[in-house]
Design brief:
Elements: H1 12-16, H2 40-57, E1 65-70, H3 72-87, E2 92-98, H4 104-114, H5 120-133, H6 145-154, H7 183-191, E3 203-208, H8 216-228, E4 233-238, H9 245-249, H10 251-262, H11 276-286
Length: 291
C-alpha cells in the first residue's frame, strides 16, 4: 500500500518532527518468496537489514537510529532488540514497541478466547508463517476443512484483503483439536517469546488496556522477563485504548522518549518501580510536555 496503511496515524508525525523514517519491506510482501508472518526473528532481521540499505540509498542519513513498530511491527522491533543483543550496534539507541509486547502464544489464545471472527484471518496468516519457516509443515494437519478451503484460495493465492472471508468460519471451527501441539507450531511459539533471550538497548513498551490480542497481562509477562534480564524498560498502559487507538493515544510519550534517546539522556526504567502510581508521578515530573 502506498499509504503504508497507517496514513497519519503512525508515521507522519515522526517526519513532521524532522526524523527520517525508513519503512521496512518484509521479505515476501510484494516480492518473490514467502513472508514469515509474526516471526520476530525473521521480521526483526528485515528491519536491521533495512538500515544499511537506506543509508546506501541516502548517504546523508544520520548514523543513530531507533526501531519503532506497532502490532506485528511491535513484535518485530522486539526482535530487533534481541538481534542487537548479538550485534550490539553502538548507533542503535533503543526500541519502541506499540501493542507488540506479547508471546505469540498469548496473542493466539487471546484472539481465540474473544471469538471475534474478524481476527480469524490473522490466525490464518500465522499458519502461513509456520509454513514459511518449516517447509515440511502441512496446514491440513491443523486447519479444519472449512478453514482450509478459504486458506488455500484466500491466503496462499490471495492477499491480506482476502482475510475477511474467514469471518464466515466460527472461531471455534478454525482449527482441529490439539492443533497447538503440532511440532512445527510449537517450534514457532517457542521462537516468538520476547524477553526470552538477551537484548540490547533501552525499551519503551506501549500497550492498550483494552487490547484484545496483545493484552495487558501478556505485556506484563514480557515486561517482567525483560526486567529480569537487566534491561532498561519503560512501560505504559493506556486504559480504555484498544489495539490501534493506542498508536496515536501514546504519541506524546513516544515523542518524548525518542527525543530523549537522540539527546543522549540516561534511559528511564520502570523495572524497579513498585506501583503504577509511582511511575505516573515520575512521568509527570520528567516529561517536558507536561503530559
Amino acid at each position: 500500500m502506498k499509504s503504508l496503511f497507517y496514513n497519519w496515524e503512525g508515521l507522519y508525525e515522526y517526519v513532521s518532527l524532522g526524523y527520517a523514517v525508513v519503512a521496512t519491506d518484509y521479505v515476501g510482501l510484494g516480492t518473490a518468496g514467502r513472508h514469515a508472518y509474526l516471526d520476530m526473528e525473521s521480521n526483526g532481521t528485515d528491519v536491521v537489514f533495512s538500515v544499511p540499505a537506506a543509508r546506501a540509498a541516502v548517504p546523508r542519513l544520520g548514523r543513530k537510529w531507533i526501531a519503532v513498530g506497532h502490532s506485528q511491527g511491535g513484535l518485530s522491533v522486539l526482535g530487533v532488540a534481541q538481534i542487537e543483543g548479538r550485534i550490539r550496534d553502538p548507533n542503535f539507541l533503543g526500541t519502541v514497541s506499540l501493542s507488540g509486547a506479547s508471546d505469540l502464544e498469548d496473542a493466539i489464545d487471546s484472539a481465540t478466547a474473544v471469538n471475534q471472527p474478524i481476527l480469524n484471518g490473522l490466525m490464518a496468516f500465522i499458519v502461513f508463517g509456520v509454513k514459511t519457516l518449516y517447509a515440511e509443515f502441512d496446514p491440513r494437519d491443523i486447519l479444519t476443512e472449512d478453514a482450509l478451503a478459504i486458506y488455500n484460495t484466500g491466503v496462499e493465492k490471495g492477499c491480506s484483503a482476502a482475510s475477511g472471508a474467514f469471518t464466515s468460519v466460527p472461531t471455534a471451527r478454525m482449527f482441529r483439536p490439539g492443533w497447538k501441539g503440532n511440532p512445527y507450531v510449537k517450534r514457532l511459539l517457542e521462537r516468538d517469546r520476547p524477553g526470552a533471550r538477551p537484548i540490547y538497548g533501552p525499551v519503551f513498551l506501549v500497550g492498550g488496556g483494552s487490547d484484545v490480542m496483545f493484552t495487558e497481562s501478556a505485556g506484563t509477562r514480557v515486561f517482567q522477563r525483560l526486567c529480569a534480564s537487566g534491561a532498561m524498560v519503560r512501560r505504559s498502559v493506556y486504559p480504555g485504548l484498544g489495539h490501534d487507538a493506542v498508536v496515536y493515544g501514546s504519541v506524546k510519550d513516544q515523542v518524548a522518549w525518542i527525543a530523549s534517546r537522540f539527546a543522549g539522556d540516561p534511559a528511564p526504567s520502570d523495572c524497579a518501580a513498585p506501583t503504577t502510581s509511582s511511575w505516573l508521578s515520575e512521568a509527570l515530573a520528567d516529561n517536558p510536555w507536561g503530559f
